[in-house]
Amino acid sequence: MAKKKKSLKLKKSTYLFIVLDTLAFTCFFLAYGPFSYFRNLFVNTALKTMNHKYFAYVLYSEKTVEHIKNSNYFVRINDSTNTDDIKIDTKEKKSYKNEYEKALLTRDKNNNDYKVLNIKVGSGNGHLVAIYDPSKVHLIAKQQLGTQYGERVITMCQREKGLVCINGGGFVDKGYGSGIPNGYVVKNGKIIWSDGYNSKAELIGFTYDNKLLLTTDSAENAIKNKNLRDALEFGPFLIVNGKPLEIVGDPWGRAPRVAIAQRKDGVVMFLVVDGENYMFGASLKDMVETLQKYGAYNAANLDGGTSATLVINNKVANNPAGGSKKTNGRYVITGWGLLPN
Question: What's the whole-number mean pLDDT along residues 7-17?
Fold first, then answer.
């Protein structure tokens, strides 16, 4: 009997070592094997973090890290949108250029405000919202900026009586978020938050004639000379004047993502893609290609990851990463909403 128990223990320990050996081999294979995806993913993810960039150099030499950086990048678009190209005419059309335009612009019964398309973007579930009146798209923000915590998108949306809302810009991240935005926040032509004057800020906003303005400029100048109404600071710009972002390789991997866009006819699009950070979801290239299919002429990337939140009719309509749907999403600072005029 004693021998049998000893044999059983031996078998259990043997199985454990087999599992550990298998995991070790798998990790080694992914890190150093012939497939570059996981290597790129690990290094690019580490380099994007605030405090853990050194992880990239734990497994790889400086030369390898530099090679990965040089093989995966995008070239930022520094042009500003030419708002004269946008001719606002959002009434329902009699004919359509393609199936994507038809799906987007054909109104749902008894809803002339917006339409939601559930689509696949990369490896994530995408939610594309068409907003037919761009004059109703406004910045939403935490009630008091600069205080300890942020607010959930659903809270900001309810306060503004919004029909559809998404998160927007970045912020000082302390787990639950904080009340401190990164960069400019502009509402109704006034700067309500700033890190200080910045002539090279990537501004994502709307003009007083309801056109999406993407410009690398200071908010002070954009308010004075570019008719800026509302704005926040983030990026990169994905499409400017019909020109897509130049992307080489896969610089940011796949993740939950959020974007805002406008067609030449003025229709605004919110695109929110679900996923888990850096593994599943959409790449930047996926976002650009999807928005182009639906006719985006200008588009910009907003804060993604666990911040990615879509609220429709007072409910979180997407599946935020990290299991935060149970708590109605994480705390953020700013966003965009379809609000009553």
Answer: 57
